Amino acid sequence: xxxxxxxxxxxxxxxxxxxxSAYRWTDAVLDRHIxxxxxxxxxxxxxxxxxxxxxTNGARAVSLAALTDIVVVWAIEYPISQFPPAYQRxxxxxxxxxxxxxDVPTGANCYVYYG
Length: 115
Description:
By secondary structure, this protein is α+β, with helices and mostly antiparallel strands. The protein has helices spanning 4-14, 27-44; strands at 49-54, 61-63, 73-77, 90-93, 96-99, 109-114. The chain is 25% helix and 24% strand.
């Protein structure tokens, strides 16, 4: 069940609001409450995601502004494709991750693991 109309139908059944000629709640009201519930769920259990982000040669700051709906950043891998993976210590402020370790980016990509 991933389509909003399917979720709305299930919510109407739970609320016993199934008479289409006399709905107690409009679709807009239910959609707002469903969106609110999904936002609360995303805060509690963020969806695990991985993004490839470009670094800038010589700069420790990496912009994460292109990543939408960040709740938490779990790890940043740089340089990528090493075994074992090279995870960087970082600080995060205002959608900018700053590398705190000895590795200074060379302009290559990094992987950002976030929710």
